């Protein structure tokens, strides 16, 4: 019965071009990466534009060395959860460094390290979203924020993408004693920004807090790479900031930076923190090395390179997408979506690029709204301008030109 049911569901997925298949990587995360084809068969080396390794640190020699050194010093595993015996000096040091990074933007900031961003988001929303709270959630929030809101006991209100008038209406109408606005800073499938200065003004006017997921901003935005708050020079105790460490930081995990009283509450009540084994200390040790790179000259150079690549790509895509009748997202970040619309068309485009040695993911519902299937191009500082030019040339060769009328 179960198997028949699932086989039917799989057939339906196939019919709608929604089946997902994993590819196996045979080499480290890098622009040129060896992967198996979708059926797990033959291996190809592809020029890849779909990782979130925005600064190109995932395969950086200094981080590999730090991970090895961390393992030598602290072992392979942590052995227990943080509150039992798994909290190591490596975790503790990392949290101290992150707290110092956020001190200018969040008064009395403390930081708490989590194994993944998914868990950090679930933890914040469930630990703070008590029964008397209301969560005001942006429509395009990441799946982990959506799941956190589902699990929280709080009432959940949703506002349309970047629609501050609608959000204000909801805040005005709310009688909840604890109002929590929940948003991505940079939207993961679109690359555009939440209007953060306006959000903060609303939060101040209506005594609300802002749970801010900066997964795609941390490391990349700001003079020192501290993320969107540094970038926009915003300071407020109302920010409950979540940064992930598996994207620009190149390793794994995530952290929450917020007023120390909030962090203390998470340590004591967040089930996603308490009831799971602490991640390997070596990972935290490597992350401290990553923070040093991000804030230093090398980080600055890598961010400048990324900006140059974003500019080159967007200039080239503007004409191309117009000719093809596609839509280029309003994005100034490393996430550049080319919205094609149809699932089959997006998959065909991705396959045509692959035949030319280039890997770009086709993103389909339910990850994005129905009718907005897209190529999601992501850039890394380890790409060269020549890599981007090769992508543009390849896209130009597969563009379905609209008939001249
Ligand atoms: C990737 C991502 C997460 C999840 O982080 P992981 O560390 O990969 O679990 C959360 N929020 C956003 C916006 C993301 O893009």
TrEMBL record:
Modified residues (N6-(pyridoxal phosphate)lysine): 247
Annotated GO biological process: biotin biosynthetic process
Annotated residues for binding of pyridoxal 5'-phosphate: 117-118, 188, 216, 244
SUPFAM superfamilies, alphabetized: PLP-dependent transferases (SSF53383)
Domain Aminotransferase class I/classII large: 47-395
EC number(s) given by UniProt: 2.3.1.47
Family: Belongs to the class-II pyridoxal-phosphate-dependent aminotransferase family. BioF subfamily.
Subunit architecture: Homodimer.
Name of the protein in question: 8-amino-7-oxononanoate synthase
Species annotation: Cupriavidus basilensis
């Amino acid at each position: 019965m179960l198997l028949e049911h699932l086989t039917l569901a799989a057939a339906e997925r196939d019919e709608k071009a929604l089946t997902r298949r994993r590819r196996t990587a045979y080499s480290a995360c890098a622009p040129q990466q060896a992967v198996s084809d979708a059926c797990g068969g033959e291996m190809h080396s592809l020029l890849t534009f779909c990782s979130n390794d925005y600064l190109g640190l995932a395969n950086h020699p200094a981080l590999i060395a730090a991970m090895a050194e961390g393992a030598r010093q602290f072992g392979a595993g942590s052995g227990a959860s943080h509150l039992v015996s798994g909290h190591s000096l490596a975790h503790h040091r990392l949290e101290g460094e992150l707290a110092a990074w956020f001190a200018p933007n969040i008064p009395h900031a403390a930081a708490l390290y989590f194994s993944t961003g998914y868990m950090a988001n679930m933890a914040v929303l469930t630990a703070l979203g008590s029964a008397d709270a209301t969560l005001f959630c942006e429509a395009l929030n990441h799946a982990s924020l959506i799941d956190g809101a589902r699990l929280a006991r709080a009432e959940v209100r949703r506002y349309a993408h970047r629609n501050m008038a609608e959000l204000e209406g909801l805040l005005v109408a709310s009688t909840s004693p604890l109002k929590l606005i929940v948003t991505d800073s940079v939207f993961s499938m679109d690359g555009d920004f939440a209007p953060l200065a306006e959000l903060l003004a609303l939060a101040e006017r209506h005594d609300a807090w802002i749970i801010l997921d900066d997964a795609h901003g941390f490391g990349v935005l700001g003079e020192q790479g501290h993320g969107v708050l540094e970038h926009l020079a915003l300071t407020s105790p109302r920010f409950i900031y979540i940064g992930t460490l598996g994207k620009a930081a190149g390793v794994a995990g995530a952290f929450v930076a917020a007023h120390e009283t909030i962090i203390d509450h998470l340590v004591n009540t967040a089930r996603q923190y308490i009831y799971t084994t602490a991640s390997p200390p070596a990972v935290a040790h490597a992350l401290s090395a990553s923070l040093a790179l991000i804030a230093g000259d090398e980080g600055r150079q890598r961010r400048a390179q990324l900006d140059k690549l974003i500019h080159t790509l967007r200039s080239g895509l503007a004409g191309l997408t117009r000719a093809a009748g596609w839509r280029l997202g309003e994005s100034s970040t490393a996430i550049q979506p080319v919205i094609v619309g149809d699932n089959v068309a997006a998959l065909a485009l991705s396959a045509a690029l692959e035949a030319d040695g280039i890997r770009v993911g086709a993103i389909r519902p339910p990850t994005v709204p129905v009718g907005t299937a897209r190529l999601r191009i992501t850039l890394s500082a380890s790409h060269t301008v020549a890599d981007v030019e090769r992508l543009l040339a390849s896209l130009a060769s597969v563009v379905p030109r609209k008939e001249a009328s």
